[in-house]
Amino acid sequence: MSELNLKHIKKIYPNGYEAVQDFNLDIKDGEFVIFVGPSGCGKSTTLRMVAGLEEITSGDLVIDGKRVNDLDPKDRDIAMVFQSYALYPHMTVRENMEFPLKIAKLPKDEINARVAEAAKTLGLESLLDRKPKALSGGQRQRVAMGRAIVRHPKVLLMDEPLSNLDAKLRGQMRVEISRLHEKLGSTIIYVTHDQTEAMTLGDRIVVMSNGEVQQIDTPNNLYKYPVNKFVAGFIGSPQMNFMDATITEKEDKVYLTLGNDHILLPAAKAARLKQKGYTDGQVVTLGIRPENLSDQPEDLEKAKDALASGKVEVYEMLGSTCNLYVNCNGVQITAAVDPSTTARVGDTIQLAFNTEYIQIFDKETENNILVDVDPTTGQLVFNA
Ligand code: ADP
Question: What CATH class is the domain 238-383?
Fold first, then answer.
């Protein structure tokens, strides 16, 4: 059992800087939670408060029903893996993994059993007698994880553990960490600035910006129902396209107008705009992901009421998909289209909007007009 509750957690550093504002999160036993956001948004500070390495200014940190704000790091039953592996260079892999257990004064038999188990889990059995300098970056990171899991901690914390590795190795280690989580079933909190890592690893993701939690949800919900323009732009690659659009009401229909192009909104989205008091002539921000734009003839045929035209400025063939950078009414938008596209640089083309996936943001607040989340839990409560 290892449940965590972060209740109104706040961090003000001694110099007065407010690094974390009112962080609320309930983490279930065995859950894999990711903190993601740009550098400096307060991810590590929050993680370090959970570990006990940083004092909590106010709020409650509860582990398995017990408030642990004032407990020493060593008494919290938490292990942490950092970006720098911090292995002891003069010790072998085995000695590095034994070290925390010796400090904890476990019996020799128990130490041997736990190191053997961790080595097997992480595929380190043939490397146990090597020193860290004779290991690759990925192997060193596995040893660092081994040193954390031998303690059988209630909670495993990871702070950008893969950011020293090259792209290929990062991909492999991501898969290994997922497997490790499956095997151990332990509660994990993982910090990263990389949205791909967050999307692929997490059961739930906490998106942060400027010390504030923006949204907490599953990867799928964050992708589909971002609460504001920040989350919409941060999650997903290539990034969501944003453009100014004017609300145009015609008879009982509502369009978003982009220059000379008019995009018909699905009824639910139109109704929500009205319900929220947005009316004819008002300017909003339309958001559409590159993968929800298409230049395939059958899609253009189907989406007669949702077309925009523009000139192709860059053509990027990626094999499984093709990115077209298209100038639509003075805004450069990215369309991730089928690689069979015949469009090339200089062509004027039409793009079909998959209007089910359109998001609409208020220009001032940048909040998503189509989505509501619970202000305390950050959980999705409505989407149109
Ligand atoms: P992240 O992990 O998201 O990159 P951090 O949690 O490390 O961000 O930092 C959050 C903010 O707090 C940053 O603006 C950082 O400069 C500031 N900060 C971190 N440590 C201290 C400190 N000891 N004193 C004052 N400000 C700090």
Answer: mainly beta
